[in-house]
Design goal:
The chain starts with 6 loop residues before the first strand and ends with a strand. The model has no long low-confidence stretch (mean pLDDT 93). It contains no helices and 17 strands. The strands form four sheets. Strands 1-2-3-4-5 form a five-stranded mixed β-sheet, with no helix packed on it. It is mainly β.
């Protein structure tokens, strides 16, 4: 049940299932959310393959154009293929984190939000590693590669709270201002 958790963010997928990110109990899937008796699936209780030992602090959810559920947590980015299995109870979650010895890994495991532009490119906003562009957008891939945009490229700060894609640019909300990122060129300018 959702009664005892701290809901933080929610959205519906294309099959009218409700997904709820909680700050203390991971992500919950709700089947038939508008009925008198909805079915709530939670980590370890219906969402059998959700990593219950980590990723309990979920901040944001995004469903990509290709049907991936991207879960922003304080312990990494979780990815699941929403439509790859007929039964969401069997859905597999792949976790992406910062790997110290792999430059193309996520820049910071604490993820704030995921944004998607009109060309369906995905951008991961991190708590202290700037913005990471996803280069390997296949839900089932065990290892994703990322392109990093940080203060070195001109972001006003590496602490990124959210981002909004507009045309070919990304407006990035940092801890102390807003940066405009041009992913095609890697250039950035800021105001704050």
């Amino acid at each position: 049940a959702l009664g005892t958790c701290s809901a933080y963010y929610m959205l519906c997928d294309g099959q009218q299932r409700l997904w709820v990110a909680t700050i203390d109990q991971g992500v919950h899937g709700v089947l038939n959310p508008l009925t008198a008796t909805p079915t709530v699936l939670s980590p370890g209780k219906g969402l059998w393959r959700y990593p219950t030992s980590v990723c309990q602090r979920a901040r944001h959810l995004h469903i990509s154009y290709g049907g991936m559920l991207l879960i922003s947590t304080t312990d990494g980015l979780l990815v699941a293929d929403l439509y790859g299995t007929a039964n969401i109870q069997n859905m597999t979650f792949q976790r992406h984190v910062r790997e110290a010895n792999r430059k193309a890994s996520l820049s910071c495991s604490a993820v704030m939000q995921v944004a998607e532009d009109s060309r369906h490119r995905l951008y991961v906003c991190t708590e202290s590693g700037g913005v990471d562009q996803v280069l390997t957008p296949k839900a089932t891939a065990k290892q994703w590669d990322f392109r990093h945009f940080t203060a070195r490229q001109g972001l006003i700060s590496d602490v990124v709270r959210s981002a909004i894609p507009i045309d070919s640019m990304l407006l990035v909300v940092c801890s102390n201002g807003v940066s405009v990122l041009h992913p095609q060129t890697g250039q950035c300018h800021s105001f704050g």
